Amino acid sequence: MNNFIFLNPTRIIFGKGTENLVGAETKKHADKVLLHYGGGSIKKIGLYDTVVKSLKEAGVEFTELAGVQPNPRLSLVRQGIEICRKEGIRFILAVGGGSAIDSAKAIAVGVPYDGDVWDFYIGKAKVKEALPVGVVLTIPAAGSEASPSSVITNEDGWYKRGLTTDRIFPRFSILNPELTYTLPNYQTACGAADIMAHIMERYFTNTKDVELTDRLCESTMKTLINNVPKALANPTDYAARAEIMWTATVAHNNLLGTGRDEDWASHDIEHEISGIYDIAHGAGLAIVFPAWMKYVYKHDIERFAQFAVRVWDVEYNFRNPEETALKGIEKLKAFFSSIGLPVSLSEAGIDDSRLEEMADKCTSSDTHTVGGFVKLNKQAVYEILKLAK
Ligand code: NZQ
Ligand code: ZN
Description:
Helices cover 48% and strands 11% of the residues. The chain has helices at residues 22-27, 41-44, 47-57, 74-87, 98-110, 118-121, 185-203, 211-233, 238-251, 265-277, 281-296, 301-312, 321-338, 355-362, 378-387, and strands at residues 11-14, 32-37, 61-65, 92-96, 133-137, 149-154, 159-164, 172-175. α7 (185-203) packs parallel to α9 (238-251), α10 (265-277) packs across α11 and α10 crosses α14 (355-362).
């Protein structure tokens, strides 16, 4: 096991009716906030009214900035920064999913910074200060509600890039599984693929002697596999929604990566796909992850066989562990298909005309490699994208 520091300061408020606490929680940090949300689903589900009522009751003033798009855009972040500066706002409340939260985090680091906020996303500047952020979550997926990361898309060149800094852990995140009842099945499935991917990015490691985190990863994956079909069949199944929602947070709050090296190549490759084609991040991962696995599994057949046996209940073939490993990959792919996700670029309506461009952007014109489990150069990323066709 590697040495590690584990930090997760986000206060999680979980369960039925907890969105009513948002005003009181926010008031602990600020008297005036930017209320930041997406395309309107929070109004349709009645959450907007609840949040506004709770803020008013707690005596918290707010200015609104709606319109965060999935794969949140830099231009809206810049607008948010301007509003906060002009109105002296020092707290951002995100109501929605990973996109609203990531956009809120970007505004939070941008307000106190003299330069252009994009500097943080291209490694040109380091975050020294950030406004506090609070969250009411409506979709279990990205894990941004308790992560130190934000992913933003710059429309100028369609670069989708991430920022990670301890300063952007949300101060609190309110998680009521009932708020996820209205998710279209496709969004539930995309969320599931993202959650699964966050666990697998940590699971496929070269670090030895990591039994606890291996088994935590396996149990979170199994919990997800058991509960996603239940939520799809019955969207108001509270027990299933609650398991999925808590799994999403645990999958990406750093616990599962303690003491082990992580991979993250599939995420890097996927960000090029959703950056250019604007598909859901989870759908992109359902396409990339099985292709990545086929490309790298020979690097550690035993680890892939363990994944097959412990997560997918495949019987271990002592004569041919490679066959066991391959069965696990097939099971994962079949699971993604069974919940309605595309598992190839063509199923997502993406042709092969820009594979090389994506491989190039992903590896910064072949000057960088991606992935910790197996280091992948531009050619390797290109081969994976070809396997994903
Ligand atoms: O925009 P609205 O109207 O709110 O609709 C959203 C959106 O269309 C809808 N939705 C959300 N909750 C709903 C609902 N519809 C009905 N009922 C509800 N309860 O769902 C759609 C997707 O929302 P979005 O916020 O985009 O989803 P998600 O949480 O999957 O976030 C995706 C973004 O997070 C990034 C991704 O790259 C992507 O840009 N990620 C962020 C990470 C982080 N910060 O740590 C890590 C992840 O790996 C990921 O990269
Ligand atoms: Zn993700």
